[in-house]
UniProtKB/TrEMBL annotation:
Gene3D superfamilies: RutC-like. Residues 5-143 form the Endoribonuclease L-PSP/chorismate mutase-like domain. InterPro entries: Endoribo_LPSP/chorism_mut-like, RutC-like_sf. It comes from Hyphomicrobium denitrificans (strain ATCC 51888 / DSM 1869 / NCIMB 11706 / TK 0415). The lineage of its organism: Bacteria, Pseudomonadati, Pseudomonadota, Alphaproteobacteria, Hyphomicrobiales. Pfam families: YjgF_endoribonc (PF14588). This is Endoribonuclease L-PSP.
Amino acid sequence: MSDAERRLADLGLKLPEAPQPVANYVPHIVSGDQLFISGQIAKDETGRVLTGLLGTDVSVEDGRIAARFAALSLLAQAKAALGTLDRVAQVLRVTGFVASAPGFYEQPAVINGASDLLVAALGDAGRHTRSAVGVANLPLNTCVEIDAIIKIR
């Protein structure tokens, strides 16, 4: 078990199985010392997709929780690609997409759920640059999707 997985366990969390792609793409690619992880949608611990629009169907707090679940899937993909999260040197970039109703402008607060989880699991290696983008809708009607670029050891 990696240090990150121990930290997650201390928070009462565990990594899910790395989700399989739902279309014609690969979940991750290693290029040199970087790992590119495809978008991970928000699924709870039972595998149920967390759906809806922020600003109408989904509260900011529930969106933050959804982003946290998406970050767990992101870490699961990193482990699948690298064998262990101990190989994560630095999360370089996170892009967060939030399914947003017109007039909803709190995308950064939602994506904080993912950012906070990455820092909690990885410490300083989890600190990253990011964008938080509002979109009309996302695959499978999920409320949050995130992708990442990670520097590896």
